[in-house]
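writing this on my phone so excuse typos. first protein, seq and then structure
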Amino acid sequence: MKEFNYLSDKDIYLDSACQSLRPQPVIDALNKYYTEFNSCGERVKYKWGETTDVHVTDTRKKVLKYLKLRQKDYFVSFTLNTTYGLNLLLNQIHPKYVKKVITSDIEHNSVFLSTMAYAKTHKIKREVVKREPDGSFPIRGQNFKKALVVVNCASNFDGRQLKNIKTLVKAVRSNDGIIIIDAAQAMGHTPEILYRTNADAICFSAHKMYAPSLGVMVVRKDLVRQLRTTFIGGGMVDDVNKSTYLLSADENPDHIHTIFEPGLQAWGEIVALGTAIDWLNKLPKSAHKNLWREATRLYNFLDSRPKVHLINSEPNPTMSFYVEGVDSHLIGAALGDKHIMARTGYFCAHYYLDHAEHYPSLIRFSLGYHTRPSDIDKIIEVLDKITNQKPKKSKKTKKK
């Protein structure tokens, strides 16, 4: 794809689940902000600042349109990343609205740890529910009465989706519960799972959807009444006296987004996110088909190797595996020597991968729209040699 022409022929990037490469239009948009109208948004009256305000407002609208959500019901706030957004929300949800916390076993640490912290802080019961093999959440038998439910809609190690997301959201909200979705792994390649999903909040990272490093929070306006605003700073207030202050969100409904935006925001990154959304919206269907075709080709190769143990049960641009008898970190280093950049370890999903399933350290391949057929050819060539090697026998030490 021409937007990634800066990527050399020999470099193969397979870590999009961590952060995607940025297409040239997004890089250009960020550079344009810094070189043409570098300014603080929502604070100044000079021309540069007015230009920033227009772009930032447009980006908020584009995020909601991308998810097919109504501005009348939701607002968009910007933060550092998904983890920060989840913690910012959970640390301010009043415990009087929560009887128990529910999450699932296949969560990223951002969800797993933040729900653990909330439950411990407020001495509330926390349940870890085992998701179905296809990623669905088992709803039957669950008591969602005033439950705080925090789950992902796509796994970061095998891409499995929360296929019954709308049913789950309805079940939680109809029982006076609160449901927050970690959408970090869905926004770049499978945003359709989130379309018109009426969750209380959706958190994701722009840097996993071809935009600069940035966190995004999409929040239902009526959730604000269940919050205790405790994280406060400049940009959130209209006035401050010696012992009192006026929140901008309380004074002006149009400033409701400021409730999660203390301090100076990453204005350039927000502007470039708008460009990334435009770029994703204009991608031809062939780009999506090509990505899944190459992901399927790589999946089929891995699935055919006797020594390779795939975590995935079906093809996905994100796939994890280990090779029997060979340390994954050594394979990662060997791939790196061939300019193939992949992650090894447990990918911040320690509970499920290590303690629940007891997998050894894994290798994760996460493809993106930059992935070329020649990349997959090279990966298959290198892995074919690795997976055909017999594991070395450890030398036995002689007894003295």
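second protein below, same order as before
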Amino acid sequence: MAMNWLRRDDKLKNHQLLDDGHFRREAPGVIYEERPIVDAGGREAEGLYSAWIWLNNPAQYNSYTTEMVKGVIAGFQKASSDRRIVAVVFTAVGDKAFCTGGNTAEYAAYYSRRPNEYGEYMDLFNAMVDGILNCKKPVICRVNGMRVAGGQEIGMATDLTISSDLAVYGQAGPKHGSAPDGGSTDFLPWFLSLEDAMYNCISCETWSAYKMKAKGLITAAVPVLKNDERWIRNPLVRTDTYVADGEIVYGEPVGKDQAIKAKELMAQSQIDFELLDKEVNAIIWKFTNLFPHCLMKSIDGIRAKKKFFWDQMKLANRHWLAANMNHEAWLGFNAFASKKETGKDVIDFVKYRQLVAQGALFDDTFAEQVMAKPK
């Protein structure tokens, strides 16, 4: 009797690795949402969706707690394994920040002086970046506000960035006791010139969305300010192409007098993400009308360049960042966390360097000399 070696089980398997218990709508948390795919006329494509992964901690500028990191990992794995999902949108709640990085209050209260614990946390953080880079769906970063520090790092792991033109971008590590080794030292040189990558990485300055668009870090900067039904580009930065003394001022801050008027205009206006979401949906619709496997092979081919340096350095960086929790991070994160009591979010850097020059022992006495005193 002939055997049927090709028996087929047509019941589709569920490849979701983590359950939905890592998602929560209460802040702080991560929200996972499915939205129908729509064309330019707003008509839905039946059975097809985009996955929206929301950082939900607006009271702390959407900084991610340990549990939120787990939620992001779960969200990207869920979206990656779902046949119905065309693309992933990584965004955040509110209009002030996409993400400002790790939760410094948690760092100061729990992880400082616990290098092993922070090493375990960095394993989760690395898995979060890996989850973005390995997602088998295109990933769009919808930037609703500032994207700095670790927020910039997880944002650069995505494939495309569509930004509010009020957003700013940058790093903060060297100012607050760390190094941007969660992706910025790996990714920035791919996006910017080596000189710009260096300065943006270590200066701890923030650059406007328009400046980042001009330099190639993001795909689009979209107006979100609305006044009497009129869309207004970010009035705090220059959006013309004027050149002053050989320097291009596009995306640079306006002068002091203009800034005062700009803030008055902003106070009379409202933030509306209608155009931002329209731009995001247009890209998702573009993705929908491409061969999905050809699309992902193309995306993974580009991602591989970012992943090459990320994979080379992520474990070495993990160990250094853990060890640093016994050193400068202990000072930096506690200084930041005690700003309300002291009025300062940084240590006395001059005193710090003076003590180092004297060969002082790094202990509690050292810390007392460089930390700001309560007001």
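Residues 308 and 341 are 43 Å apart (CA to CA). thats all i got for now
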